[in-house]
Design brief:
Structural class: alpha+beta
Distance between the termini: 47 Å
Strand content: 5-15%
Radius of gyration: 27 Å
Shape: globular
Number of helices: 16
Length: 533
């Protein structure tokens, strides 16, 4: 079939031949700002959202706030639907309020005691993101500035820093790949670690006849006693998992795929030839059993953290010296809607093998996509209702009606329940006769120096003490060496400190300024735009 945007465009044009549509198939995110640039957002009169995840909604919301564009936000969840009007300078933005977090399964259930396929799929999604997105991204942070990264980690000296370094070591040293054969070897060892070794250790620590401190059987429902798997190249599900894992690992390490990579049996046969050492369970391994534990217990140190950090830093320095100049990895963000990218194949394979460990029913790709992608099928009536409500608000937006005319709606057709309310106005901050909201932005011309910026804030009776650009700190008054930056242009600091080229096609850049009033109380200042051309 066709992608949704051209298919929907063709259907709409059949209804109204005078309608002019430009159908795009680009992900709306910071990575596509070469497509959705200043000219694109500046050329819009109104934005109507039809997105399927919160992160995308928050990003579009931030763009609409930045470019002062109305946003008509809506969503459906089964028989439920909601609409929210985001009007510049009149209402609060979408990101101003958040839904309460969804109830999550206990960490120990996901890691060691799953008893539904949902648990297996949630675990598989987490492993995908950890192995193929977060770990390569952390490695790239190290590769961008190795000395600074290691200095920060060694200065922190805690278990969190140790875990980050261990993650980078796994990517660049332990699990480093330079050929597709290396990727197959990694996939084969991943299979062994996930579906054999992990389970073998679990049943060694808690045998089938294990009892709790109260004398009740440890493996009481809903816990299910697991069984380790043995790899077989003839098993289609196992072959598919190995293939997907090897291909995604190759993509993360920018390794070219051979023609036979698309043949799962050939990849599985190569995996079967990998020499895997026999696993020996160890006594004294701690496995979390407390359902109230918020995260997996950190791995024990092989000594004090300082010595371990020094050893890890040495390993990374050696590994970095062997890499070509400019080397970096490609973190892989999960995309459920592309059936050719092997993302769902990886998650489906991992979840089904884990289900097989625990004698749970396996699922097909469609069911896996619905659960892993957190998709609840839309109902046509709820979708139609949301569309109609948004269209009514669109008329009000074009007519520039006051806030009293707009309505946010929540409806549940299954009850039925219809709730309409006037949008909430934005939070107003007042200081010395000045008023501003999230919609405001302070603009400074002629590329000022740091001192000129501080003076500009002092004129508003605000003491600016920190200036940042993205993740980089351009100035903070607690650092004596930063006084040397007072006479430097902000654009120069963006280039030298943040190591960022000023964006082409734009005459300004944005900074965040932290400031306080005369009583030492922090004041939320608007975003500051610096014009340099």
């Amino acid at each position: 079939g066709n992608a949704k945007s051209p298919a929907a465009s063709a259907a709409a044009e059949k209804i109204n031949s005078a309608l002019k549509i430009r159908a795009l198939q680009n992900r709306v995110s910071p990575d596509s700002e070469d497509v959705f640039n200043d000219e694109f957002w500046g050329g819009l009169d109104v934005v109507v959202n039809a997105l399927d995840n919160v992160n995308a909604r928050l990003y579009v919301d931030s763009r609409c706030v930045y470019f002062q564009r109305p946003l008509l936000e809506s969503g459906t969840l089964g028989a439920k639907c909601n609409t929210q009007m985001v009007i510049p300078n009149i209402t609060e933005n979408y990101g101003a309020s958040r839904d309460p977090p969804e109830k999550q399964a206990p960490m120990c259930t996901l890691h060691s005691f799953p008893h539904t396929i949902d648990h297996c799929l949630t675990f598989a999604r987490s492993e995908f993101e950890g192995l193929l997105e977060h770990a390569p991204a952390e490695a790239n942070a190290f590769l961008l500035d190795p000395e600074k990264y290691l200095a920060t980690a060694l200065a922190a000296g805690d278990s969190s820093a140790r875990e980050r370094l261990e993650r980078v070591v796994r990517v660049l040293v332990t699990d480093s790949c330079v050929s597709f054969q290396d990727c197959i070897k990694w996939a084969r060892k991943l299979f062994e670690a996930q579906f054999h070794d992990r389970i073998a250790q679990l049943v060694f620590t808690f045998p089938e006849d294990a009892a709790t401190s109260t004398g009740t059987p440890f493996w009481s429902p809903p816990k299910r006693f697991p069984h380790a798997l043995t790899f077989s190249a003839d098993d289609a599900s196992q072959a598919s998992f190995i293939q997907a894992a090897a291909i995604l690992k190759a993509q993360a390490h920018c390794i070219e795929l051979p023609d036979w990579a698309t043949a799962a049996p050939k990849v599985a046969a190569a995996a079967a030839a990998v020499d895997v050492p026999e696993f020996q369970p160890q006594a004294g391994v701690r496995i979390e059993t407390d359902p109230k534990a918020a995260a997996a217990a950190p791995a024990p140190s092989a000594g004090d953290d300082e010595a371990v950090l020094a050893r890890l830093a040495y390993q990374l320095k050696e590994a970095q010296a062997k890499l070509p100049a400019g080397y970096k990895l490609e973190p892989i963000a999960f995309e459920k809607d592309d059936d050719t990218n092997f993302h769902m194949d990886f998650i489906l394979g991992l979840a089904n093998m884990r289900a097989r460990n625990y004698s749970l029913p396996e699922v097909d790709k469609l069911k896996a996509k619905l659960i892993a992608g957190k998709i609840i099928p839309a109902i046509a009536t709820a979708t139609s209702l949301a569309t109609g409500l948004v269209c009514l608000e669109l008329y009000k937006t074009v007519q520039k009606k006051p806030i009293e005319a707009f309505r946010n709606t929540f409806a549940n057709l299954a009850l039925p329940l219809f709730s309409m309310a006037e949008p909430v106005p934005p939070k107003t901050i007042e200081h010395q006769g000045l008023k501003w909201t999230l919609w405001d932005r302070w603009i400074l011309d002629n590329d000022p120096t740091v001192q000129e910026l501080l003076n500009w804030f002092q004129d508003k009776q605000l003491e600016a003490y920190s200036i940042s650009f993205g993740q980089s700190l351009l100035y903070n008054n607690i650092f004596p060496k930063h006084r040397e930056r007072l006479g430097k242009k902000l654009s120069e600091l963006v280039k030298t400190v943040a190591k960022t080229d000023l964006p082409s096609g734009r005459s300004h850049f944005d900074i965040v300024v932290a400031c306080e009033d005369e009583d030492g109380e922090d004041v939320d200042a608007p975003l500051v735009s610096i014009k340099y051309a």
